[in-house]
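Supplementary Text 2. Reproducibility record for the structural model of the 399-residue chain.

All settings were left at their defaults, and a single model was retained for analysis rather than an ensemble. We include the record here because the model underlies the residue-level annotations in Supplementary Table 4.
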Amino acid sequence: MSAIEDLSKEIKASLSEVTVKLQKHADDSATAVQNAVQMSKDTKADVDKLLLESAQLKTDLKAAEQLIVKLDSGEGKTVKSESMGELFVAAEGFSDFAIRAQGGGKHSFSLPIKAAITSLPGSAGANIQPMRVGMVQPLTQRLTIRDLLAQGRTTSNSVEFVRESGFTNNANVVSENPTNPKPESNIIFELDSAPVATIAHWIRATRQVLADVPMLQSYIDTRLRYGLKLKEEAQLLKGSGVGLNINGIWTQATAYANPGVTVQNETSIDRLRIAMLQVVLAELDPDGIVLSPIDWTTIELLKNTQDNYLFTQPQGVATPTLWGLPVVATQSMDAGDFLVGSFQQGAQVWDREDMTVSVSTEDRDNFVKNMVTILCEERLALTVYRPEAFVRGDLVVVS
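Retained model, structure tokens:
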């Protein structure tokens, strides 16, 4: 380290000498101004040169002092990667350059690079961080059955409701003062209940992973919520009602039966229109159609004899509608089946507990294993007030 200290002393001495020369020129300039004598061009050039040398020497001195401090602290023995300033001062030939610079004149010095800068550990590798893209989000199914239904909330474990099971309409025209009693109609009701069902699932993960990768926890939350929605969709539509299952709309719907409409060359589209009529004849207003994505795609691809699409245009994005009703294309519906109904009037979904995601270490041996359990669940019930508000059937073309 003595060579660096000697170099530092030499730079200080050179800097002191340059400072003295600059002070002398400054004094001469002040005298010249007082005597109204202009500074000569040669004198001005000498001053500019000394200022440049002074700035360079100050930079060299600072680099040398930093290197001395690093060596004194012992860091110089373990540092594998040095800064460009440290390499510059410690480079071979720099000392000679500094001595020559003291004598005046123009001198230059370049840092000899003996090895290329690479991504290896001994070079710039420690400064290179791999790029990590975000997790690729999987495609998700479009869920819309719940959106068709009337919404409600409950604070109990079951929902009791009155279902109309029969209606005799004897309304008629009567005179102002009828001899016989006015006609009597009759409505039959029955009390029914729908239990609140719990839909849930969970996954385990290490506490370290969730702490180190916050994005992962958000991703898991999203996927758990989506999985729950998938099951909810299937239960609301086709829940069997057996055991803990929800009694779905399809299970309670009325079977398709043509009320007597004659259709030539009947197609699936014709059958959907007749199902709408069946709902209307039950004195309800149809407001939705549920199909499999396969069947809806088949309908969208229908063409006339000129190969023009009947229901859509490939270059546009249209809301799925048929006969003026919104079409819900969901994979919860089997291909070949359909459901037409008055969803707002005929059924209602009741939320007991909204969908929640909980994280806990208090599950089995999670605490001692640094594991966490992520649970996603919800509680809900479905009430179908009028089974005749829904018509289910198949889309097989009648021959």
